Amino acid sequence: MMSINIPSYRQAFMLMLKRDLTIALRHKDDIFNPLLFFIIVVTLFPLGIGPEASTLSRIAPGIIWVAALLATLLSLDRLFKADFADGSLEQMMLIPQPLFIIVLAKIIAHWLITGLPLIFIAPVLAVLLHLNENSYGALMITLLIGTPVLSFIGAIGVALTVGIKKGGVLLSLIVLPLYIPVLIFATSAIDTAAMNLPYSGQVAIIGALFFTSFTLAPFAVSAALKVSTN
Amino acid sequence: MQFSSFAEFIDMGGYGFYVWLSFGMATLLLVLLVMNSLVSNKQVKQRIAKQQARQEKLKRAAKQQAQLSQSS
Amino acid sequence: MNPRRKKRLTIILSVLIGLSVVAGLVLYALSQNIDLFFKPSEIHQGKEDTGLKAQLGQRIRIGGLVVPGSVKRDESSLKVSFKLADMRMPIAFNDADPMVTVKYDGILPDLFREGQGIVANGVLAEGFIIEASEVLAKHDENYMPKELAEDAGKAHTKPSY
Amino acid sequence: MWKWLHPYANPEITYHFTGKLTPWFTWLSIILLAIGLTWALLFAPADYQQGESFRIFYIHVPAAILSMSIYVGMAIAAFSGLVWQLKLADASAAALAPVGAVFTAIALITGAAWGKPMWGTWWIWDARLTSELILLFLYLGVIALHNAFEDKALAGKAAGILAIVGVINIPIIKYSVEWWNTLHQGATVSKFGKPAMSADMYWPFLFCFFGFAFFVAAVTCLRFKTEILSRNSMRPWVKALVKEEIK
């Protein structure tokens, strides 16, 4: 199975990605549980606030984004925890390729498993919340660029807390403040779109957050994993 | 001096509540911080002293044991 | 160049490219006006840079200076209405300036007075009227003692309402 | 070039050096704050618009400036701790975190108490206020992470990574006032050239600011000493020192 020559960076990346996706497809609840959580949280709001359409349409962007944020937070645990528990994480750290390649592959796999399904289900929920019809484009774009940022930042938090027993509450304390800029700009973009104003400024900021986390988070995660598995 | 009487000073031109709330809360938090720093300093020292005492006790016990086994 | 070095160079290069994309995006975002903040003249003529107009019934935030002599209060309730004009330096008011009327029902902040900068959140109604749900006073970063302010012609009397 | 720094990488020498500095900072802080606060409360003129409520400025602004500077200092310490493996840098980051958290809380509370009479609201979700609140959360996260690890060296590294990641927040706070056209006014004291205040308002501010700054220095020194002791508890010099003091 193991080839004699060391796999290149790209091969290592693809191998890791494939491995994580295969595992996720075997445990389908990893995909469906966060999604189900997302749907249930969103449906709680009309029940709690009241079914008035004008109120709901005003707070719809916030509800969808907060629910997406919490769903991502809930699913973060599976990013490194299982690998840490069965020792395969330490194996991964021993391979000759730099750790951030592996980390990048794992984060992208995590987004494909948990972030992408949210994007597909979000417009349906937006209809239930009477989201302003001008806003759908903005909702989709912000989710598409914003949810990867959630995975990247979340990975830093998980990597820091993976070695701690009962790290769950600590994880949310660490990660949620860092999520706030994404939340602010995404909902602001959707609100602006509802008023038929240009929202490219907000999208550009989310894009900047995306590229920042994309380039820097893998290094931070690798450093954090090295600390945690010490 | 900006105030002609003590009552005027407390009243702060009608903003007394807000001004004294700010100064009071700031003082309270700073005092708590200083107390916490002093207490934790003391605690660490006591912990180290206790640790040391325990080690010395163990050492003495080991010595006694050794003497006992020698004499017998 | 040995392969190890080449790889390291690729990594550093990709990080640099990533960060320059970030810088570009931030610069672009800064060039956009990313607030829902309108000036009174922009309610009349549309946004300065995009020409977009606020629609009736739209929730907006408006900022401007309270026009002297325009504050009208209801005797029996907290209802108040006043006119706002564009903020400009030095402060001057002209009858021909575009203005909007703000209607508000509630307690105004202490800093509220004629000629003061105000931010109001509310809904746009017919005839350049804002039905405000919130009125907040904005003050500038200049602080000075009363005597100095009077010298500078910024006489201040605490509002009696 | 850096040779003169080497002795300070030794915990014992640093401990005694810090011990010598602490009383200086403490007295400077007490003197400056006594002068500054008396001046601010009794002698500084009231503002032409805000009246006496302006006196909150003398706590609010120093606290806000310090809350951000302490965070930057903590992140720099954490960064050098990670990169150059300086254990003492980790210890100083750990010492700074609670101090910074307290000053952030003071800035928020005094800001609310000032906003209520002036703006008409205790709190507004404006960019600057919100990011100061996030700063408090970041401090609390760093402190919580410190406490979550048994091993102090590991805790320092983990919290250090979080502190560095969170430092992105600082420019957002700093420039948010310019980015968003919201309620919080621009910076008063950092304006280059002439400050946007008259001199008889500015002088008490300087006294208060440096008073608080030396207060931070004094408390940080104390906490830093505690951190050094707890990280080196098995060293003979610590044992001797504790024996001496506990008696």
Structure description:
Chain A is mainly alpha-helical and 230 residues long. Chain A has helices at 9-26, 29-49, 53-75, 81-85, 88-94, 99-128, 136-161, 168-194, 200-228. By secondary structure, chain B is mainly α. Chain B has helices spanning 6-11, 16-71. Chain B starts with 5 loop residues before the first helix and ends with a helix. Chain C is elongated and about 85 Å long. Chain C has a five-stranded mixed β-barrel. The longest helix of chain C has 29 residues, at 3-31. Chain D has 247 residues and is mainly alpha-helical. Chain D contains eight helices and no strands. Chain D has helices at residues 11-43, 57-83, 87-119, 127-148, 152-166, 169-179, 199-231, 236-246. In chain D, helix 2 (57-83) runs antiparallel to helix 3. Chain D is globular. The model of chain D is unreliable at 176-195 (pLDDT under 50). Chains in contact: A-C, A-D, B-D, C-D.
Features:
heterotetramer; B: mainly alpha; 2 helices; 0% strand; D: 247 residues; mainly alpha; 8 helices
Kindly state the percentage of residues in helix of chain D.
over 70%
Task: Return the structural class of chain D.
Answer: mainly alpha
Total count of domains of chain B: 1
Overall mean pLDDT of chain D: 80
Largest sheet of chain B: none
Report Rg of chain B: 29 Å
- The overall strand count of chain D is 0
Give the overall silhouette of chain D: globular
Multimeric status of the protein: heterotetramer
Detail the poorly predicted runs of chain B.
Answer: none
Mean pLDDT score of chain B: 85
Largest sheet of chain D: none
Q: What is the C-alpha radius of gyration of chain D, as a whole number of Å?
A: 20 Å
Q: Could you state the order of secondary-structure elements of chain B as H and E?
A: HH
